[in-house]
Amino acid sequence: MGLDPHVLRGDFPILRREVNGKPLVYFDNAASSQKPRQVIEAMTEYYFNHHANVHRGAHTLSVEATEMYEGVRRKVARFLGAADPASVIFTRNTTEAMNLVAHSWARSVLEPGDEIVVTAAEHHANLVPWHLLAAERGVAVRGVGLRPDHRVDLDELEEVVGERTRLVSTWHMSNVLGVINPIARIAELAHRVGALLLVDGAQAAPHLPVDVEALGADFYAISGHKMCGPTGAGALWARPEILREMPPFLGGGEMIRKVFLDSSTYADIPMRFEAGTPNIAEVIGLGAAVDYLETIGLDAIFEHDQALVRYALERLQALQGVTLYGPEGDDRGGILAFNIDGIHPHDVATALDQEGIAVRAGHHCAQPLMRTLNAQAMARASFYFYNTEGEIDRLVDAVAKAREFFAAFA
Ligand code: C6P
């Protein structure tokens, strides 16, 4: 069953806004999606009627808050296809989830000479934590290139993954190219040499059905704010048997079993990794976002994104002087990075903003990819289920107008 973006838009108050005198076209969903009324209301209702600290009190409000918070853990586990809710650790976002793996798992397991394999199209959140670790531990970060069609070169990956590889860490959907990595195949290559696979699910989880078991992932990281949830709530899923062996990431309240003046012992998962008072209201908002997305259906969302990106590719390809990035095909989600000859992407984004259209411009936290593709920066339109073909028509018209405007100065 398809979805109707015109109906769903009714749930998003912000989409009624005008920007620069034009109806807002929000095409910056890969940076952060908008929030439906249901999510905002779930957080308000929590603050109006149930707020107290979680896991601490015997009083009614604390019990209610704890039940709401733990209920979201069960929801997120189900959303990711995980059997055990204790395998879901709440974090602020994907970045924190990946840093948790670096600080806890990698720091306790990796030795000098061990290798972490990444691709040329990683977000900085999947590079910098490994660089910090490399400096501290003498581990090496090895990169795998892209094929000319902008998909990861799996032959090269197969060559690079070897007996020193302890971790393969890569995106599920690229935040620049929109392409979806063949995670199950990458998992096979990693596991063949006894390495683990960390999947950066920041862009995939909001847009397509995820099943961590079927993917063969060992770690999977998500950000709630890209999937209709609030900022400040994300999650790391990890195989429970791996999590149980991992030392704590942060120390403090809630993550302990016993504390003495000179030593402590630690709680079981998931609490071991959730020191201090968590972002309770935000986690509850994330739960409402999961409910909201599941009501629409992730299959329908992905189908809609794909139809939009196909339409946008077709229309933008017809314009001269526009370079489009990423492959065409069924393994492509609703993200479209582009450049217009002779115009800096920041000027493109400013010109589009004049037309009420929000896109992102810059290196998209993927500087190695920019170098690989020989681009200093790119403009990027990223779609979601509330976007329409009519909005893409407005984008195409605005791109054509910007091209003409800047051509006058060339
Ligand atoms: N990308 C973008 O505009 P955080 O900031 O922790 O929620 O997500 C980090 C992150 C990790 N991996 C990928 C593939 C991502 O796309 C992002 C966030 C945003 O592309 C902001 S830089």
Question: How does this structure look, described?
Answer:
By secondary structure, this protein is α/β, with parallel strands linked by helices. It is built from 14 helices and 17 strands. It has helices at residues 5-8, 37-49, 60-79, 94-109, 128-137, 154-160, 183-192, 212-215, 240-245, 280-296, 298-317, 345-354, 367-372, 389-407, and strands spanning 18-19, 22-23, 25-26, 88-91, 115-119, 140-144, 165-171, 196-200, 219-223, 234-238, 256-259, 264-266, 322-324, 335-340, 357-358, 360-362, 378-382. The strands form five sheets. Strands 4-10-9-8-7-5-6 form a seven-stranded mixed sheet, with helices on both faces. A four-stranded antiparallel sheet has the order 13-14-17-16, with helices on one face. Strands 1-2 form a two-stranded antiparallel sheet. Helix 8 links the parallel strand 8 and strand 9. Helix 4 runs parallel beside helix 5 (128-137) and helix 11 (298-317) runs parallel beside helix 14 (389-407). The longest helix has 20 residues, at 60-79. The radius of gyration is 22 Å and the shape is globular. The N and C termini lie far apart (48 Å). The model has no long low-confidence stretch (mean pLDDT 97). Bound molecules: ligand C6P. Residues 30-31, 93-95, 123, 125, 171, 175, 200, 202-203, 223, 360, 364-365 line the site of ligand C6P.
